[in-house]
Each structure stands twice: as structure tokens, then as C-alpha cells.
Amino acid sequence: MALAEVYLTNDVYMACLQLALSTEKEEVICLLLGETKEDKEKKTVYIYSMKIPHRLDKKKDRVEISIDQLLATRDYAEKLSQKLKKEVTVIGWFHSHPHITVWPSHVDVNTQANYQTMSGSFVGIISSVFSEDKTTKECEVNLTCFQSENITDDSGSVRYVRKPIPFFVISNPVPVTTISCLKTICDLPNILHQEEEDNYRECAAENSDVLCSLHNEMLLTKSLLHITNKISIPLLKTLELRERILKQQLIYLKKFDGKLRSAFGGCQEESSNSKH
């Protein structure tokens, strides 16, 4: 049965956007976790969580991860399954297209086809970021969800093409995964930091020249400062703002709860007096 729809929780949606907007010079990637539900009428994918892997290759128009990262995410999905008491698997992948169209390239379509050999429900989601609307001159963010399907052209050769899949953003039906998404995003600076450290050590091993070493150290420092200024500090401010909002909501709910208890207690007292 072909996949009909994809439902993405609002927590995963916001986390994916946060990841996509973390850099405009390179593509970023994450793996999506969820479950497949199938009945007589249709097959549906629900995405509850995500995992950001270390990138094997990171460029403006390409991003790759190693098989080890995929296996590690599968282990993470198994732990999440035990916690949620439902079968959670690696069900999709998300990556960004900075400054380019949201539509998948032929490389994306072929990569998606490879993923679908693991599961026919596997989906790809792309976010186009840092693009400017030609009419309004405003920055816009576009998303698309797709799978790959093979077709035979006029010459008789078989090739893969994009198959659009309808997707919807919904409120999180599994509140425990909200914490999971939050922890994933909070760990983003550490992941980027580790990637820069690994890149620095790789360059240092290839060239021991003193001037090259100083240059590489300068680039590492610059990259780490960029991560701090553009990701860590804004993320901290966002979390602090969210904390203040939640505290205000808690105060309001406690007051509202007190009013309800007072009103309910008064009604009970009047009812008791009327019986006497």
C-alpha cells in the first residue's frame, strides 16, 4: 500500500526549522523518528522525534551522514520505543536547502530511493531557507515532503522521480517527546562544535606546517565564536523567554484554579444549606 499522508508534530517542525536556520552556508540534516499506521483505506506516517547526526560531508549543495550515524539513530529509536510503549523507527530524513529551491535534486531523489529500500514508508522532508520572495523581497521558508518512485521514459530507461506526499503539522500527541526534541536542539551547538574540532584535527594531521597550523587554529576559533554568537546565545535567550512565559501561564492557571475551587465550594455549601 502506498503512503498517503505524513503528520509532523509541532515540536519536530519547530526543531527542524531551528536546525535549518542555524547556518546558511551549508546544508544540515537530521533523521526523523516515528511510526507507521496502516488500515484498510490508507497508510499514514506519524513523526514524533528527531536526531541530529554528525555530518560526514557538509557543503552548500550537499550533505551526507555515515552508516554508523544511521545505526546509532536506530538504537536511539529502540530506546524511545521502550519509553513510549510503541514501535518507533527511523522513518524519514530532513535536510535544508539554503538559498536554493525547495524541490529535491536528482541526488536527493536517488538518496531517498536508497532509504526506501529499508522501509517503504520512509519519507524525505526539505526546507528551503534564506530565500527571498521576488515580489515582497521578504525572506521565506518553504517545506516539501516527498518519496521517490521509478518511471520508464520513452527510451525505455528507468529513473527515479519525486513523488509529493501531503504532510500536516499537528499538536504533539506524545508529550514526552517534547523533552526529546528540546534536548536535541539544545545539543545542536555541541554537535557543531564537535564537527569543527574533527575538521581541525583532520587538517592538522594532513599538514604540520607552522603557518598552516596557526591559520587552522584561527579558523577554528572563528567558527566556534560563530556558533556561540549565532546559535548558543540566541537559543539561550529563546529558552529564557519561554521559561518566563511558562511561569506567567502557571501563575494564571493557579489563580484560575483557586477561583474555580472557591466557586465550586460555594455552590456545594449552598446546595447543602438548601437540603437542610
From TrEMBL:
<dbReference type="Pfam" id="PF18110">
    <property type="entry name" value="BRCC36_C"/>
</dbReference>
<dbReference type="GO" id="GO:0008237">
    <property type="term" value="F:metallopeptidase activity"/>
</dbReference>
<dbReference type="Pfam" id="PF01398">
    <property type="entry name" value="JAB"/>
</dbReference>
<dbReference type="InterPro" id="IPR040749">
    <property type="entry name" value="BRCC36_C"/>
</dbReference>
<dbReference type="InterPro" id="IPR000555">
    <property type="entry name" value="JAMM/MPN+_dom"/>
</dbReference>
<dbReference type="InterPro" id="IPR037518">
    <property type="entry name" value="MPN"/>
</dbReference>
<dbReference type="InterPro" id="IPR050242">
    <property type="entry name" value="JAMM_MPN+_peptidase_M67A"/>
</dbReference>
<feature type="domain" description="MPN">
    <location>
        <begin position="6"/>
        <end position="146"/>
    </location>
</feature>
<protein>
    <recommendedName>
        <fullName>MPN domain-containing protein</fullName>
    </recommendedName>
</protein>
